[in-house]
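Exercise 7. Given the components listed, write out the predicted structure of the assembled complex. Treat all entries as one system.
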Amino acid sequence: MSDPCCPQVYLLSDGTGITAETLARSLFTQFPDLAPAWHRLPFVQTAGRLAAVFSRVESGPQPALVVATLANADLRAELRHCPVPVVDVFGEHVERLEAVLGTPSQSVSGRAHGIGDHQRYDRRIEALNYTLEHDDGIATQDLSVADVVLLGASRSGKTPTSLYLAMNYGLFAANYPLVPEDLARDGIAHMPRPLRGLGRRLVGLTIAPQRLAQIREGRRPGSRYASLAQCRAECAAIQEFYETWRIPQLDITELSIEEIATRVRARLEGER
Amino acid sequence: MSDPCCPQVYLLSDGTGITAETLARSLFTQFPDLAPAWHRLPFVQTAGRLAAVFSRVESGPQPALVVATLANADLRAELRHCPVPVVDVFGEHVERLEAVLGTPSQSVSGRAHGIGDHQRYDRRIEALNYTLEHDDGIATQDLSVADVVLLGASRSGKTPTSLYLAMNYGLFAANYPLVPEDLARDGIAHMPRPLRGLGRRLVGLTIAPQRLAQIREGRRPGSRYASLAQCRAECAAIQEFYETWRIPQLDITELSIEEIATRVRARLEGER
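Answer.
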């Protein structure tokens, strides 16, 4: 039951535990040789439930570790009874912030990922609806209200990135597939109508043809669509389109959705 | 330029800064009277860029505070030159983890939200594709491979929750709108074909009719679809459907997407 390479990590929270999981996964990237077993314990909001958690942790495999984001200060005080080491995230940082900000904190459970700020929450849902309705050029008539419009080849990450930007940041993120007519040599002199006037809100995703072929192969094995020749031709035509229209480019070949989204957002903020 | 109620919070990272932002926003929920101004500084990967950040922070409005998630230990050492208070997230926790785990950390920048574990990343993208293809009952033929199928009235949060589960947890999350035929009194004796055999993978979302009417009103003002009478009738019929088929219910009236997703996930993990 005991394997030092596979620590049991309990993500303990009086809310969703999203902050605990985000932080713990981040920290464990610094220990690449360890393969932690993750245990999520969200919505632990009473001393009784916390005591039950401690029993479970104690009787489970070892080594074990608790990463706790308990907003409630009374509950946090109970962490001293925890039978295994604890990373008490709020305990450590909230006190620090109180000192720095010169303001006492107000300990209330489970606020971080609740509806919280209604205006901000509603905007995220609205943005997500907008993004779903403007995915892959489904609707192009009101791109003018978009915060950002991603361009790129099919399967270059436009849709996941748009959804991420909408869901997490409340950005009205649309995406537009560049179809052959947009890219045809004698048509390139004309900017596609839906994209006119969007200026710096356009971001042109690029991707290495080899990587694009690999992704498409996973979707439609052996197809012309997934062939390296086809991917090369599309990437070249798209590149030319970006250059003609001076659309800022972002190479996503080695980037995750989160990294693409962060770079897109940084550019939009830089434009303001 | 100085407003103690509006501290300037710089989210400094050598990666995306997602961990820094998640943690900082969580911590500031404990200071509801403050209205922090957020400044994102992702991908700061050299001592030179860090020094530029320090100048910017120093010359900007005060009070200011840096929340740093620098994975690189050399860069982290530079934080001692920061002209304003720093919450050094990795510094504090990584050392603690080293002691607890008895293993030295390996400091490499920007790993937390990169592609990282390819298998896990690819699964998330696959899950997102699946979810988009199985949103709102678009495709019902292969619900059998779903990890979870959310049921509920139109605008009860099925789509955003499915997308969240797929994007963040790599769950194949489908959703199925209960149409009038599914709910017709003489049809209720028959489980809709696509849902048969899914057992505990079905989750029935419920919502207070008043809240549903309010959400729908935002989408289609003054419509029959948004009327309280219509919402009441649908919610009652759906409730009856869940009870007939003993589908576990989840009331989402006061929950955020993150909270719904966490509860759904906890149930699935409880079933294993």
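Discussion: Chain B has a mean pLDDT of 89. The longest strand of chain B covers residues 8-13.
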